[in-house]
Give the backbone structure.
Amino acid sequence: MMKWIKLAMRNILRNKRRSLVTLIAIAVGFSAISLFRGYTDRIYWFLKEGAIRGESLAHLTIYKADWLEKGKLDPERYMFSQEEIKRITGLVMQEKEVVLITPQIQVNGLITNGTISLPFIAQGVVPGDDKIIKGSWAALRPMTGEQLNDHKPYGVEVAKDLARFLNLEPGKDGVVMAPTLSGQMNALDIQVAGVFDTTMAATNDKFMRFNFDFAQSLYNTKGAEKFVVLLKDEKKTGKMRKAILAKLTAAGIACEIKTWNEMSAYYARSKGLLDVILLFILSIVLVIVTMSTVNTMSMAILERTREIGTLRALGLKQRGISILFATEGGLMGLFGSLAGIVIHLIVCTILRIVSPTYMPPSGTVAVRLWVDYIPATLFALMVFLVFLSLLTAFIAARRAAGQNIVDALKHV
Amino acid sequence: MSLIEMHNIRKDYHLGETVVHALRGIDLEIDKGEFVAIWGPSGSGKTTLLNLIGAIDEPTEGDVTMAGRNIRSLSDNQKSELRNERIGFIFQSFNLVPVLSAVENVMLPIQIKGVSYSEAKLKALGRLKEVGISELAHHRPFKMSGGQQQRVAIARALVNGPSLVIADEPTANLDSETAQIIISIMRDMNENDKITFIFSTHDQRLLNQVKRMVRMEDGRIVNGDARR
């Protein structure tokens, strides 16, 4: 095999300019895919962590059966009771993969500073548990003042724009109003503990975060709308959903469980869009690499027709001719991919040094442009492009290999 | 048994709607160790005849047998193996692979056969020495004269120890002095190694040195011992 690789190498160098153009096409195509893949990988990670930790969705969300369909019409009926909260917590915590399970409640109402009232959507969370869910992500969350804490139930977090409209800042007081589950209006005093940035313009003027007990008081309930479950390993989300659902069903608790990516519509939409763009780029590169290789190989085959005839006369079989050209194609795919990896590394290094930022659509905070270096992806892409070049060259060479030897020898 | 036997060979070429009868009923037998010249005017069918003997073309009618094997009955792969192991080719334009050195060109047929690199190199260097250009072993063809390239081509044709060497106008592109050297080399190989040489030529110097001449005209053998 080495002799054919050696011969293929020399043939690649035979027409340096043409080979170089093909190598550049492959290298640019490779780096376009790898860089975009590295970028989307970072974005996916960011969106995933944002959903699990930033939105406090954790990995699994447990609702009482039919909550998602009928819960808003009859919340008291479809919320978990105090007894169910204890039972479910106990059962789920038996699972070794579970880090924590915590109840949550969502409250809709009005917040006022005494002069102006604005609608809000608040998430009622257990501060200690929420801190565990947020983990290191909390450091990425722009915030002034203090976070929620168990010792100050009336302390709340207010989204940046909502706080600005109401002229609220940490330490200032206000009142929140919401209908209880029985339909009566309830109002409670609050003190702004902290002002946070949701990082989304669409939610910065309406989001709040309450202590879970405070949210229960406002709704006048001892129940919980849902549980979120944090797992040790995100990859086991699907498996754990099945396990927990089976366990709760066996215990006579009718419920439905959603995974974090089912709960985060933003993640699903963003990933869908980026996947389509990646597919689009991949298709373009596929066409470019195929066309370049076909063009280079066709030219080489035409120029070397007499040489093909000579090799056939010397006893090289048709398959041998195809392998010879396929080796040339494969080598070009390999060198083009290696050049693509070099371009990828250079761009990654430049991005780490320059640290450019950009404002995502609907965002409020500039995000650092970052491209991940994923060896497995680069290797897979290299294998794919080498195989594609090899296959393209092989197909182009099959016709040449099958041509009449006498005609090939006469070719000028 | 003759090395080559041809019976009632016809070969037609189709050029659009015109049919060209390149060979019109050839009968020919060639024994092992012969030094045979096929000669005649251009278009008489010399090259076509050599192509059929060399198993790189197929007759329209008739059978060509080599050492008793009917070439027509062989598959493409079997014909490739036959050419590789039993037949050497020398072309008018040398047809060396330009990206390979002289020794690498000579090694090609052995490597196609699957022999190891070191053994192939040893044999190739030996053949280059026999044709008197071992000092050019690592030169690429473009750095060699026509005569030197044809010597490499002869070494390549002989490297697998073929029983038959086919040469199509081997001296046509060479000056008379070089042509004489090439003829001598071929003649020596024939006499010393008993390799059968069949070649087409217009070259009178070459014709003067052959044991047997086959003259062709209009696709037929017109004189010379077609059957011995």
About this structure: Chain B touches chain A through 27 residues (CB under 8 Å).
